[in-house]
Specification:
Elements: H1 3-25, H2 33-40, H3 44-53, H4 56-73, H5 86-139, H6 142-148, H7 153-185
Helix pairs in contact: 1-3, 1-5, 1-7, 2-7, 3-7, 4-5, 5-7, 6-7
């Protein structure tokens, strides 16, 4: 259990009140909350619930498993059978290409995928911590007190908008970081095609297999 797990429950009532006030009263004119709502398309309660559902543990575990698997892929391939003849030469060329593809291409791609999973896990951890800090701030704010004490509708709308701005601003920052992460990894996890070796001269297709 982390800080967000501890705060999400106690913050639920406040966020529900904020969502309700915003749904009824709308956003005050020219308030910076407007662009955040258009970007995220979610009220604070739903946004925090989405972040709370993110868990770094499974991603970190997947990264560790993939890294271990990449080490196995990097092991030298089994030698090709000791066949002789024209067809055997073509077979050995294909065997060598496949071995290099597994030992170098797939092993590297698995290691890259592991690193990506670990980076995403780190992003989840940071996002959960930042959201928890935002909740701790708004739960002890003057705006939260104002909503709890039943102020006038105009004041309630202003207080709800300010709380929402702080919460959604944090989530928007996390989304921006996620976009940068995706851009940094763009293309690094694309499908890895198998490079076919150069075509060998035509053969009779007969293998000379030693007995």
């Amino acid at each position: 259990m982390d800080a967000l797990d501890q705060l999400a429950g106690p913050a639920h009532d406040l966020l529900s009140r904020v969502d309700d006030v915003l749904a009824r009263a709308g956003v005050p004119p020219d308030h910076p909350l407007g662009p955040l709502l258009r970007r995220l398309r979610a009220l604070p309660g739903a946004a925090v619930s989405a972040v709370a559902a993110l868990r770094p543990g499974p991603l970190a575990a997947a990264g560790s498993a993939l890294r271990a698997l990449s080490g196995q892929y990097a092991q030298p391939a089994v030698s090709a059978p000791d066949w002789r003849g024209p067809a055997a030469e073509a077979f050995r060329a294909r065997w060598a290409a496949l071995g290099a593809y597994v030992e170098q291409g797939l092993a590297h791609r698995l290691a890259e995928t592991a690193a990506y999973a670990e980076e995403v896990a780190g992003w989840v951890t940071r996002t959960r911590l930042a959201t928890a800090r935002a909740l701790a701030t708004v739960m002890t704010s003057a705006e939260a007190v104002a909503l709890a004490t039943g102020v006038e509708p105009v004041e309630a709308a202003s207080a709800a908008a300010e709380i929402a701005r702080r919460v959604l601003g944090t989530v928007a920052d996390a989304y921006a970081e996620a976009d940068l992460l995706l851009q940094a990894w763009s293309g690094r996890l694309a499908e890895l095609p198998f490079p076919l070796p150069a075509a060998a001269p035509p053969t009779s297709g007969v293998l000379d297999v030693p007995l």
